[in-house]
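Intended use. Records such as the Probable GTP-binding protein EngB entry shown here are meant for training and evaluating sequence-to-structure methods. They are not intended to support clinical decisions.
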Amino acid sequence: MQRLPFPEAEPPDTEHAEAGRRLFAGEVDFLKGVVAMSGLPPDDRAEVCFAGRSNVGKSTLINALTGRKALARASNTPGRTQEINYFTLGKSHYLVDLPGYGYANAPLAVVRKWQALLKTYLSGRASLRRAFVLVDARHGIKPVDEEIMALLDRAAVPFQCVLTKTDKIGAGSRDTVLAQVRDRLAPHPAAYPELILTSSEKGEGLATLRATIAALGAEG
């Protein structure tokens, strides 16, 4: 059987699942919101970031991963997150919630400012191990997602596509979306060759994502 490009990531084995569980069950705290590069914390540990269109479910996914309902502020108002929000996972990782890109309910000058900050961060953060580009499973990859992916290509930042809200689509729609996502990822050299499918509501894929993040810190 021919292996599909960008297959779904396999569930972690017992050892890696436990490492992921321990990481996210330990001390997880909001550190700070950053509005300028000068405010970034020291790059003294592994760092992963979540990027995605406004209202794709970044904050909800962070809350689901950590089991803390209000750690990251979720909002039904697109574009509410206007800072780079840093969270600590013990002493080994930073987890970073980036401003939503695309449309936003904010003045144009504010939108431009935080989008410029986003691009500068992605291009210049030495400790950034991987960007997780979140894509709504109901809609697939949009042109604005491809703009961020192209930026990550240019910055040589590895990124992995994480589909959110997979509980909101049926099996037939899932296959169609996966085919579209695989097609759109193919031209991007920085794209990590596995997909992670998640549902914050149902818990799907959370153990896989936790284990993936834990392993990135273990690489030294």
